[in-house]
Amino acid sequence: MTAFFSVRTLASWCLAGAAVCAASLAQADATLDKIEQRHAISVGVMLSGSPFGTIDPKSGEHLGYNVELAKGIGQALGVETQTVSVLAPNRVQFLQQGKVDILIANMQFTEERAEILDYVPTPYEEVGGAALIRKGAGITQWADLKGKPVCVSQGSNFIKPLQETYGAQIKAFRSQSESLLSLRGNGCVAAVHVSPTMHALLSEAEWQDFELPLPEDLIPSNSVIWLRKGEHDTQAKLDAIVRDWHRSGWLLELGERTGMAPSQALRDLHEQYRNAAPLAVQP
């Protein structure tokens, strides 16, 4: 009797342990289930300026390239889209803490970021950095920034090459707007941020005394959607959506419509996927 009880108890423990393990595995990749259950996806986006993202001063509506990408994801999944404004220093925390489901937040791929987050393998664009500099500063190449103060956002992937390759003195700010304010106040000789935003600024009257004199963007890198570690079902679903965007040419159209001039890398991806089978849902 005792032996039977022990075996039966041990079996129960094993079954319970297996159930716990199975539940843990399911929970490790539960984001897609949660999105479907609440019929909405929460997307962290950068609203630091055109063309990536802005806030309509009258309605408070989120606008711009990042926002349209987020809406495209929601439409392809058949759910509502909720965009959440994030900043460079807190965007990873927002994702890791579950405040957003995914990030479309001007985070280009780096090996360091991939160590703590997962990402959608197929990029949706390629973006590098551009240096906004006051006219007449005499800076004509990246090497001219050696020993000079350069303003960037905290957590920027441009910090490493600016320091290690070009010897710049980094001044990192919580937001892009703070970085640009320091540039206007002569707190630095250059502000380095994503190239499309820097080009957009030149069309504004307040930046008429500045220019983008360096001929090449800094470390052009893949723009990808970021997820929490282990979310492989969400990753696969989103990757199929991004590949279909390339197939249909929607990303090219979106770039032209929002002022995000399509890169050659984006055009190459369209050619790569244009003959693929389409998804059932299009943005």
What's the average pLDDT? 90
CATH topology call of the largest domain: D-Maltodextrin-Binding Protein, domain 2
CATH architecture of the largest domain: 3-Layer(aba) Sandwich
Per CATH, the class of the largest domain reads Alpha Beta
Fraction in beta strands: 15-25%
Quickly give the structural class. alpha/beta
- Give the helix proportion (percent range): 40-55%
Distance between the termini: 65 Å
Q: Rg from C-alpha positions?
A: 23 Å
Keywords: Signal, Transport
InterPro entries: Bact_solute-bind_prot3 (IPR051455), Solute-binding_3/MltF_N (IPR001638)
Protein name: Amino acid ABC transporter, PAAT family, periplasmic amino acid-binding protein
Organism: Pseudomonas fluorescens (strain Q2-87)
Ordered list of secondary-structure elements with their pairings:
Layout: H1 2-28, H2 31-38, E1 40-46, E2 54-55, E3 62-63, H3 65-77, E4 80-86, H4 91-96, E5 102-104, H5 111-116, E6 118-119, E7 125-134, E8 149-153, H6 159-164, E9 169-173, H7 176-184, E10 190-194, H8 195-201, E11 210-211, E12 218-223, E13 226-227, H9 232-248, H10 250-258, H11 264-273
Parallel strand pairs: 1-4, 1-5, 8-9, 8-10
Antiparallel strand pairs: 2-3, 6-13, 7-10, 7-11, 7-12
